[in-house]
């Protein structure tokens, strides 16, 4: 799970915890993409949450695609491509994604050379703690999400 800094031009960082409903999207995408051919120079990484270990996933690369379940951008199951600035900093320690928006906003303070970052995700229907399994809407969007991630990894 811990990522070591590498010189891959693109890192795909799949964030999430399968024990919390649609928050498990990152693990499902990691498992799906790990069975597929990825473009040269792409490293696939699973990261349960954006803690200190995740910092190395942003070093030594040109681009990072962060894959995560999202909330507040549309109907459940909708695929979104966002800039880090579009992911709001969390105001409550009890919200989903605690730290993702804040973590991305603080990244320039931690790294001298911040790679280009794009957040690609699916609007979640349910983030219930200790309720494993994706909702039907999010599960139905996995194939489209994986195709979008692969396409973005293949294009500048």
What is this structure, in a nutshell?
The chain is of the alpha/beta class and 156 residues long. It contains 3 helices and 5 strands, in the order E-H-E-E-E-H-E-H.
Helix and strand arrangement:
Blueprint: E1 10-15, H1 25-33, E2 42-47, E3 63-70, E4 79-82, H2 100-110, E5 116-123, H3 136-154
Parallel strand pairs: 1-2, 1-3, 3-5
Antiparallel strand pairs: 4-5
Task: Provide structural commentary.
There is one protein chain. This protein is of the alpha/beta class and 156 residues long. Helices cover 25% and strands 21% of the residues. It has helices at residues 25-33, 100-110, 136-154, and strands spanning 10-15, 42-47, 63-70, 79-82, 116-123. α1 links the parallel β1 (10-15) and β2 (42-47). α1 packs across α3. It is globular, with a radius of gyration of 14 Å. Residues 93-98 have low confidence and may be disordered.
């Amino acid at each position: 799970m811990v990522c070591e800094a590498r010189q891959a031009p693109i890192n795909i960082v799949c964030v999430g915890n399968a024990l919390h409903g649609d928050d498990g999207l990152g693990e499902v995408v990691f498992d799906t993409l790990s069975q597929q051919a990825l473009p040269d120079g792409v490293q696939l990484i699973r990261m349960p949450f954006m803690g200190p270990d995740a910092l190395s996933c942003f070093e030594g690369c040109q681009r990072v695609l962060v894959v995560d379940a999202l909330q507040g951008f549309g109907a459940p199951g909708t695929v979104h491509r966002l800039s880090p600035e579009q992911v709001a900093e969390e105001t409550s320690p009890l919200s989903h994604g605690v730290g993702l928006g804040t973590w991305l906003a603080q990244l320039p303070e931690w790294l001298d050379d911040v790679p280009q970052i794009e957040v690609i995700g699916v609007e979640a229907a349910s983030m219930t703690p200790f309720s494993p399994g994706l909702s039907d809407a999010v599960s139905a969007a996995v194939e489209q999400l994986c195709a979008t991630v692969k396409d973005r990894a293949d294009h500048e």
